[in-house]
Design goal:
Blueprint (H helix, E strand, L loop, with lengths): L1 E2 L2 E4 L5 H10 L4 E5 L5 H5 L2 H18 L16 H24 L4 E5 L2 E5 L2 E4 L2 E4 L2 E4 L3 E3 L15 H6 L6 E5 L3 H13 L2 E5 L11 H13 L3 E3 L4 E7 L2 E6 L2 E5 L1 E4 L3 E3 L6 H4 L22 E3 L10 H16 L12 E4 L5 E5 L2 H6 L4 E7 L4 H6 L5 E7 L5 E7 L3 H13 L4 H5 L12 H6 L2 E3 L4
Parallel strand pairs: 1-7, 2-3, 2-8, 3-4, 8-18, 10-11, 10-16, 11-12
Antiparallel strand pairs: 5-6, 6-7, 9-17, 13-14, 14-15, 19-20, 20-23, 21-22, 21-24, 22-23
Helix pairs in contact: 1-9, 3-4, 3-6
Bound molecules: flavin-adenine dinucleotide.
The site of flavin-adenine dinucleotide (FAD) has 37 residues, from strand 3, helix 2, helix 3 and helix 9.
InterPro entries: FAD/NAD-bd_sf (IPR036188), FAD/NAD-binding_dom (IPR023753), FAD/NAD-linked_Rdtase_dimer_sf (IPR016156), Pyr_nuc-diS_OxRdtase (IPR001100), Pyr_nucl-diS_OxRdtase_dimer (IPR004099), Pyr_OxRdtase_I_AS (IPR012999)
Keywords: Disulfide bond, FAD, Flavoprotein, NAD, NADP, Nucleotide-binding, Oxidoreductase, Redox-active center
GO molecular function, one term: NAD(P)H dehydrogenase (quinone) activity
Length: 457
Amino acid sequence: MREYDAIFIGAGQAGPFLAARMAAMGRKVVLIERKYLGGTCVNAGCMPTKALVACAKTAQMARRASEFGVTIPGEPTMDMSAVAARARKVTLDARSGLASWFDSLETMDVVYGQAQFAGAKDVYVNGTRYTAPQIFINVGARPHIPDVQGLTDVPYLTSTSMIELAELPRHLVVLGGSYIGLEFAQMYRRFGAAVTVVERGPHLAPREDRDISEAIADILKRDGVNVLLSQKLLSVAMDGSDVVVRSDQGEVRGSHVLVALGRQPNTDDLGLDLAGVETDRHGFIQVDERLQTNVEGIWALGDCNGRGAFTHTSYNDFEIAAANLLDGGDRKLSDRILGYGLYIDPPLGRVGMTERQAKEAGHRVKVSTRPMSRVGRAVEKGEILGLMKLVADADTDRVLGAAFLGVGGDEAIYGVLEAMNLGATTEKLRWAVPIHPTVGELVPTLINDLKVTISAM
Ligand SMILES: Cc1cc2nc3c(=O)[nH]c(=O)nc-3n(C[C@H](O)[C@H](O)[C@H](O)COP(=O)(O)OP(=O)(O)OC[C@H]3O[C@@H](n4cnc5c(N)ncnc54)[C@H](O)[C@@H]3O)c2cc1C
């Protein structure tokens, strides 16, 4: 049996940083990882996908070159092995950076293998028992494969296997019209594949307000992505070299199918019952405001607790745990104002509540929108698709949320994110002097145009 001050299960975006903080304080910690350091973000998520999005953007700009007075003869051709190699390099560089950092920490051990609880203070890995008074679970999530007739009998792709794909599909059928599916859909269309998105709901990116969802669909359709909405998936089957996806609305045939229908936590093979740790019916570990599970001495951080699904929410879980356990702080999950990006091109930057959420939460809402075609910076760059939207409380003047779908939207949203974290009113924001020409310079204009809305979104 090996004794430690703390055990960390999973080398994702929360646990390793807390482990390193503890190790730097001289505590003896062990980090257990069954696959790769860095978890999903580094190896199969944000980093490789955003590297691929950059390749797709370059192909698209080559196609549009003549609009900018640049002559590139003919349709660009893709070297998909070079594309995959570029994404792989981004991953490997980040992974090896983490490995060297952890190597430098004297009281931190890294063990590779599947961890399973043997009790509330004990974990088994490769037949060895590890024990500690504190255990931090950071096991993340994986693609959810729903129970659809025939699906597991066809060679389906997931976001993980897509990253390594070094060929161009003739026709990629993407099941699921949410964030992950949409990024791959546009990217592969720009690489030159025919792409069809099959979405169950009446809108893409169903969590967003309808005007934003419709603008997202418009962006994808202009790229030539075929979008099928309100499709109840019935079956998937092979017919020769075609994969045939059948829904209640008809069928679509492709050469490859990507399943992007949500993610499920990696908690089913952890032996949580032996530690007495409770999950909800989807397998997400139940935590309190300070990320502690129902078992004293066990915390759950990152995607596996179902309270966030992003790298920055996972990292923020580390910050909350570190502040409370190491720095005498009092930080809570509910202090977090959620922001995120959808990295189609142009991207969506989001923060806080949508208009619909604000109304459902009982706010009297003021809304302002502006098409990107009326944003100088976007016009100059020749990127006029999308819109900016700001939502505020009509009674308190507080900013409640924003969606910037357009060129630079993922960066410009920061002005609103910071303002919300500082509790700024629209009156304060209106008097900030923005830099010209930027996308963010339109925030004071959006504030001046705020109007009370009552209709549902
Ligand atoms: C395609 C894609 C694109 C994404 N893009 C973005 C983006 O642009 N921005 C963003 O913020 N987020 C993005 N995400 C989400 C982001 O990657 C995750 O939210 C984030 O990685 C979650 O981190 P985590 O710390 O919770 O767990 P993970 O990073 O998933 O790490 C968990 C680790 O635990 C290990 N593990 C699991 N079970 C065990 C066990 N029993 N024993 C030992 N080890 C175990 C796993 O191997 C893994 O390494 C994307 C995700 C995907 C799939």
